Amino acid sequence: MTASQKLSQGLRTFANDIAQGFFEVTHNGFALVGLAVMFAVITLTARPDLREAGEIRLMSWLQARQPVAQAMEGSVDAIDRATATDPQDLPKQQATVAYWLSKKYRVAPEPLSALVAEAYEIGQRTKLDPTLILAVMAVESGFNPFAQSPVGAQGLMQVMTRVHSDKYESFGGKLAAFDPLTNLRVGAKVLQECIRRAGSVQGGLRFYVGAANLEDDSGYADKVMAEHLRLQNVANGRVTAPTTAQAAPVTAPAKPQPVTEPEQLAAATNLS
Questions:
Q1: Dist. CA 30–CA 22, nearest whole Å
Q2: Which of 21, 73, 112, 210 is most buried by a 10 A CB count?
């Protein structure tokens, strides 16, 4: 046998030894994994408490990972949470009102369109003129959904959240006061109750601002009614160019009288 043949035979023997060793190692490894799995199954079957604890820990881990995964993917449902509507999707009258308010109060037309559409829907349901609801919002907050007065009136319609907290329960609690549509719905309900109690829109507005027992409401009702008339003209096609300026906060009556609990329930706002 030549030297080259001996070398070739040696290499083949070396390769066979390596292959055999690898097979034995992997075979034994798989056998160990199989035994471990079988032991785990037997243990979990015999100990349901361990299985339950493991399921709880696994579920907790998955739930903890879910927000991370969502944050990495991005908040794809943000558009669903946005309070906005394309003005072009509204009926012509509502779109006209939305554009007019947008220019006057320097608010984007898309969120205003959502509010206008909601005001018209609520108005139909409650028999309130939607332009009156919008006028109250304009005078109360200038369409700032996060507005708050020193005495606790909050949101678009400056509802006294602590007084009307019960009205927010069906919406998830008092923090819903800062959701524009929720505040609009609650404010419209309070306004409806005030008008019904007073017997007139003008008197209802005095109740709404908390001035039912006062001689002077600091011009609040007149301001709302004036804006209400302007919005009616806009809605009916008698459009006048809006004065581009933010609505000034309304000043509450200077010397408020002590009010009773029923009167507190009727008074939604108090912009001191």
A1: 12
A2: 210
